[in-house]
Fold this protein.
Amino acid sequence: MTTASPHAHGVHFGRADVQNAGMGVGILLVVVGILGFVPGVTTQYSELMFLGPDSHAMFLGLFQVSMLLNIVQLAIGATGWAMSRTEHGARNFLLGAGALYIVLAIFGLSVGVDSAANFLSFNMADNWAHLVLGVVMIAGGWLLSRNMASDRR
């Protein structure tokens, strides 16, 4: 009788794949949140406002950002980083934050770019990126947690 190696169950370096994915997304969002405050990476930096559609700063010249949006990205990323200490936490982060990003995308698409309700300063690139990120996070959380350690016992 043979037993499967830990890699056969998605465990690498003592961490499950879902934990690695959750931590990776968390780190990515923290980096994006920090870089949103860096002139040069964020063009038109002098037009960076705390909130609202009047913030015309552009992260990587493509995504409209505000200070509040950068802070939200930092908070979600730090939450993901912290929750990824366990498989269940990582799965819950990927599923929950993925759903949140889909809600943000729907909100951004429904209020319009120039609307006063656009308090996080979304543009169309933000909306579609949030939608894709949300779907990928939910898919990753679901697919990578199908064989969690508690299920393997």
In short: The CA atoms of residues 126 and 143 lie 25 Å apart. The mean pLDDT is 89. The beta strands are 11-12, 15-16, 42-43, 57-59, 63-65.
